[in-house]
Amino acid sequence: MEIQWLLIFTLMHYSACHIFTEKEHALLPPLYEMDNYTECKMQNNLYCQADFTLSPLQNTKLWELIQISRKEKFMFSRDVSYRTLCVPQKYENIEDRKHFAERIVNEKLKPFHLAAKIDDIVCYRKLPFDIFSLDFGVSTYIIFVLLATFIDKGQKSSSVFVERAFQPFSLKKNFKKLFQTPSKDSYQKLKCIQGIRVLACIAVILDHSKVSHLMSNHEVTREFEEAYSVHYYWFIFDYFVIQIFLVISPWLLTLDVLDLYEKNGRFTVKDVFLMFINRCLRLWPVLIAIVFILRNSYGLNKVLDLTTPKVIELSDKSCRTNWMATVFFYQNFYFVNESCSMGAWYVSADVQLYGISLIILYLTLKTKSTAILKLSLLLSYLIFACIIYFKKLDVVFRPYPDFFHLENMGRSSELMYLYLMTHVHASTYLLGICFGMYYHTQKSEKIQVTKAFVIFWALSFFGLPVLVIGIASRVWTGVAAALVGPLLKPLFAFGFAVGILGMSRNVGG
Questions:
Q1: DSSP per-residue letters across 132-198
Q2: 115 and 144 share a domain?
Q3: Could you tell me which of 452, 464, 461 has the C-alpha nearest to residue 504?
Q4: Alpha carbon distance 443, 191 (integer Å)
Q5: 102 shares its domain with 144
């Protein structure tokens, strides 16, 4: 049902979009142009990315089209040009390289009666290979894993020290865990979570693949603009899909905390500390490995596309100056072009909210009152509403075609305040706690599934996410944006949470 509605929205939106005709598009100069990388390196020249701003030498029909493109959000602004050029080695000075690039591009633009002024140029350089840092880090980790496996295998009855220090890294132990099915009753009833997680993971992978493709150079930009117009609502869906994980994670956390509380009769500060540290310990090996790879030139030269010198320079600089933000979970307060690993923003936001949730659960169980939880929900709404209002933001960030240029994405305040930062996802996380508490109180009761609940389940699970996408698709401003914006993510998550709750009672799956 959700897919059908998205298709209907897509067709309606496509009919309302304006892009240039093929004839008009043929008048425009190329937005992107690339020299051959292989030939350039064979000539031992520099491979450089350069950005240009265009201006008219005289008023023409072409310049009128360029002015139109600046106003149409669903088209690329054509008063700029992006070139990747082969620059001779003799130009050692940055200013000389700029003059060379400007001269070459202006020659090509003469038939269009346009002039180009260079804004920036970055040339690919082979970064120095720090063999010690990479080899030492990777070798030490591999040796430790093999040692942990050997010790775990040789222990007939594991000591407490071995269990805590070595077993988490043992290949034998982790292989067993991989095929182990938890016997918890809540796991069996909530198996549907795994299916929803898999589908959400596929959506995220497809989204990241799509963004990577859109950030690359496109020879035929009209096809890109057509595809964007068709897929506008899918972009909005991609913006919300991460909320599925952010409502499931606190739900499961709440069940763990309440089970521990039932077992021990208390939930202490020590429990809060240990659960938080365990969360960090699970994530640190992966994050440290990512930083090791990206901070080392060998990793950058192998992982990243050599035809994008700007990306390599940004990654190298970010991983050498801001690596601590990735490792210590505060990367989501940095702009994208300052982040060592762009995808690690989610880990930072999740760990921060995990810690906040543990504190809220501790205070809730300590006071035996949900007042703290209710107050936290209200505060999360007000904080997000104030940020939207005072920063003059929309309810969602809209990745129009121009957004996919590295410079625009890298310094986007809309992306920061409406997607990356902690306050954006706080309400969804708190909603997950509410569902976890409700599920825990009802788990031992035999609940009669009524027709009213089935209708409510279907409307919520299939209707709410689509309703949210429909609301988010129109532009909101001012007070209206501040009132509506903070509600959309938790509403989207609420639909999926009700879906999971229903499936745990054998409704719909």
A1: HHHHHHHHHHHHHHHHHHHHHHH-SS--HHHHHHTGGG-HHHHHHHHTPPP--HHHHHTTHHHHHHH
A2: no
A3: 461
A4: 14
A5: no
Q: What is the distance between the alpha carbons of residues 112 and 101, in angstroms, rounded to a whole number?
A: 18
Angle CA(301)–CA(302)–CA(304) in degrees, nearest 5?
A: 75
Residue ending a domain, among 123, 156, 171, is 123
**Which alpha helices (DSSP H) does 231-367 contain, by range?**
232-240, 243-264, 269-295, 297-303, 309-321, 323-327, 345-367
Residue 508 lies in a domain: no
Cα separation, 141 vs 132, whole angstroms = 14
Question: Model confidence over 404-463: pLDDT tens digits?
Answer: 887 788 888 899 999 999 999 999 999 999 999 999 888 766 667 788 888 899 999 999
Report the Cα 199 to chain-centroid distance in Å: 16
Query: Which residues are registered as beta bridge partners of 32?
Result: 82
- CA–CA separation, 81 and 314 (whole Å): 20
How large is the angle between the packed helices 478-503 and 422-442, nearest 10 degrees?
A: 30
Same domain, 115 and 212: no
Burial label, 177 (beta-carbon count in 10 A; 0-12, 13-18, 19+): exposed
Owning domain of residue 90: 2-123
By the 8 A CB rule, do 39 and 74 touch? no
Residue 509 lies in a domain: no
User: pLDDT tens-digit profile of 391-400?
Assistant: 999 999 888 8
Give the residue from 180, 198, 221 where a domain finishes. 180
Local structure of 74: helix, strand or coil: coil
CB 283 within 8 Å of CB 347:
yes
d(CA 291, CA 296): 8
Please report whether residue 273 resides in a domain: yes
Q: Describe the chain by its helix, strand, coil percentages, rounded to 5.
A: 70, 5, 25
Q: How far apart are CA 148 and CA 125, in angstroms?
A: 40
Residue 89, exposed/middle/buried by CB under 10 A (0-12, 13-18, 19+)?
exposed
Question: Residues 400, 437: one domain?
Answer: yes
Predicted model pTM: 0.83
**CA of 33: how far to CAs of 27, 29, 43, 489, in Å?**
16, 10, 19, 39
pLDDT (average), residues 153-159 = 63
Query: Which tokens in the block code for residue 383?
Result: 């904080």
Q: In terms of DSSP bridges, do strands 114-123 and 32-34 run parallel, antiparallel, or are they unpaired?
A: unpaired
Q: Do 175 and 316 fall within a single domain? A: no
Which pairing describes strands 80-87 and 114-123: parallel, antiparallel, or unpaired?
unpaired
- Domain tally, the chain: 3
Q: Looking only at Cα atoms, what is the longest distance across the chain? A: 85
Amino acid letter for position 245 = F
